[in-house]
Amino acid sequence: MFHYLKFTNYFITTLLGVSSVLLAQYWILLGFGVFIIFYIVGDAFFGEDLSQPNLTKKWALDAMLYASVPTTFILMTVCIWLVTPFNWPIMHWLSSTIGYDFVAAKANTHIIEILVAVVFCGLMLSGIATVVGHELIHRIGNKKAITTGRWLLSLSFDASFSIEHVFNHHIHVATENDPVTAPRGRSIYKHVPIAIWGTNKSAWQIEAKRLKRKKKDVLSLHNQYITGWLMTAAWLGFVFLVASWQGVLFVAGIGLVAKVVLEIVNYMEHYGLVRHPRERVMPKHSWNTNRRISCWAMFNLPRHSHHHAKGAVPFEKLEAMPDAPVMIGGYISTIVLVLLPPLWYRLMRPKLQHWDDTMANENELSILRTQQGHGIPTSEMTGA
């Protein structure tokens, strides 16, 4: 039973985070600090989860995934309340019932606390919606799963992820044709806009090619890239109706943070690794971590090496792959390191050198030499 319950980790921390946002004022800062510390310290001190349990209760696993829908709804409702100029009678009732003046707390929330809430809620959204959306859009042929995944991803302006991620990233990972695989020496600040532009361009091209093959109009509702953006527009339109322009700005900011977090995660999962386009994807072509807290919080997403080696494998069957390239730390702590490029390069240097020495074949070493010949300094070839 424990191996099922461990995946409820992120729901619990998200609901605790939601509570701090609802309480508003300094509670937002406190909640954000506790959230970050829990995941960094938890990954540092609770070690790795190398277990491979045989989880057969598919209904329970699916229930946990789809529980992200009401949890996301609760999160976004609280976010909208924090900034809406409208008075909600239910909040007056809740204030009198609980004995805490939520209305006054919202009115007294400082702009700095609002800005922290954008980042905090963006992180929570990326975990509860993006991670689950990623799992669901891999279930090719399951219309309910893909539609739910696309709606979850649309909150971060990324419903087209269901196109590009499955039909481009997984095919071209660790090659120059993959917009989210960052070459050595590229900082996260340079990579994020490149990745966002590249993934959107790729998604459009994939859909255009598919529709032309089916003899359907590219500029139509048959185009899933277009319908994905319509999902986002519908969401923002709803927010405008219930929370005016303040709500739209706030949830748009949260969505953008979640999207940037996704690209940061892509960056650290694939940074500096290369593969010959005609060679199959292997566990060595992505960075892996089995840190216990990260794996439990993100439905085994950190077991990324197995996910890329066998993309159709559901999260509960992903293997630990202890011999795969190992990420610096857990996901939250690695995100922090990525944001400090000099430190990131320094820490990645020995890891990339180890990959070159023990895992790279001659074709991959040749690709690295070619990259060096195209102007990447030798020191940055190993992440310096």
Q: Could you explain the architecture of this structure?
A:
With 384 residues, the protein is mainly alpha-helical. The longest helix is centred in the middle third of the chain and has 47 residues, at 224-270. The chain has one domain (2-381). It has 18 helices and no strands. Helix 2 packs parallel to helix 5 (68-83) and helix 5 runs antiparallel to helix 8. It has helices at 2-5, 9-23, 26-45, 58-66, 68-83, 89-98, 102-107, 111-137, 143-154, 161-172, 188-213, 224-270, 292-297, 304-309, 331-338, 341-358, 362-373, 378-381. The termini are far apart. It comes from Glaciecola nitratireducens (strain JCM 12485 / KCTC 12276 / FR1064). The chain crosses the membrane at residues 20-42, 63-84, 111-133, 326-345. Keywords: Cell inner membrane, Cell membrane, Iron, Membrane, Metal-binding, Monooxygenase, Oxidoreductase, Transmembrane, Transmembrane helix.
